[in-house]
Amino acid sequence: MISVRNRQLRQLHREFKRSRDLILAVAFLLFISFISIFAFLSPYDPDTIDVLHRFEGPSVKHWFGTDDLGRDYLTRILYGGRISLAVGIVAMSISTIIGVFVGIVAGYMGGVVDNLLMRLVDILSSIPWMILVTVVSIYLRPGLQAIILVIGLFTWMSIARLVRAETLRVKEREYVLYAQAIHQLSTVIILRHILPAVLPTIIVAATNGIANAIMMESALSFLGMGVQQPVSSWGSMLNRAQGVLHTAPYMAILPGIMIILTVYSFNKIGSMIRIFAEPRTSLK
Q1: Does domain 2-39+67-277 have CATH number 1.10.3720.10?
Q2: Which of 47, 69, 79, 273 lies 20 to 30 Å from 173, alpha-carbon distance?
Q3: What is the DSSP letter of 128?
């Protein structure tokens, strides 16, 4: 086991040095996270309205120009990055916890429990996510907390399937069978043997889940069902920009680029981490 893990670490190190795209992805995420955290250092308030300087193009004073209310667009993008990243990470955490719990319980218990949980997964997966999220959003007050809960509570099904499949494979290993033979508690077996073995798969799914959550938040905010003004996210900024594309196209281009690069970076990192889950997988 140790030698296999060492080979995986060496392969990961080689791939990291060889893949320029991967290095750029990691660097971009670190950079955007850093500047979003320290967005408060901007000399402009993201919510201060200045109608005398509406739709100013990029300049020395306003690097990314101003929006339809005269607010500094760079500052709005930095604060919007906070929201988009927070939604991605927190919603992914909720989704992963539910998916891992359902997947491990279904895979390990088997029988009636497995059938019931998987039928629930099938039912929820058969409903288009946009319809499901839209219906649920009607009964929740629009805002950051609501969108995190909606995304987190209704995107765990794919993770549950992946974890269940891995659990079915792991529970047939000798050390798990031995633990069952000596009548160890199921919770002990799951925590000591099953969970560590499926952890690489969980990490890969979680990384991709962040990208998916950011995309969903952007789509919902673009449709007006996400975060509400004056709070900004990249998706809500796209929504606000669609009415002024002819006069201020930069208002749509800049947040759009941020969404694309962030989602791409998380997916690229997910491909790197897949080395641990699938030792023969190589980055392209």
Answers
A1: yes
A2: 273
A3: -
CB of 21 within 8 A of CB of 214?
A: no
> What are 72's strand-pairing partners?
66
CA–CA separation, 223 vs 115, rounded Å? 36
Contact 243, 222 (CB under 8 A): no
Encoded amino acid at 215, one letter: M
- Give the separation between CA 82 and CA 41, rounded to whole angstroms: 14
Residue written as token pair 């250092």: 41
Q: Quick: pLDDT tens for 194-206.
A: 888 888 888 888 8
Q: What residue type is assigned to position 89 of the chain?
A: I
Cis peptide before 58 (omega within 30 of 0): no
Instruction: Dihedral sign for Cα 283, 208, 36, 218, please.
Output: positive
Q: How far apart are CA 167 and CA 67, in angstroms?
A: 51
Measured distance CA(219)–CA(236) in Å, rounded: 9
- Across the range 35-49, mean pLDDT stands at 83
Per-residue pLDDT averaged across 11-21, rounded? 65
| Whole-number pLDDT of residue 152 | 87
Structure tokens at 232: 């900004």
Give the tokens for residue 145: 């907390």
pTM over 0.85: no
Find the helix or strand (DSSP H, E) in which 145 lies.
Answer: helix 144-153
For 220, the 3-state DSSP assignment is helix
Question: What does the domain layout of the chain look like in residue ranges?
Answer: 2-39+67-277
CA 238, 239, 245, 251 torsion: positive or negative?
Answer: negative
- How far from the centroid of its chain's Cα atoms is residue 94's Cα? 11
pLDDT band at 8 (very low <50, low <70, confident <90, very high): low
Higher pLDDT, 7 or 201: 201
Instruction: Count CA atoms within 13 Å of residue 16 on its CB side.
Output: 14
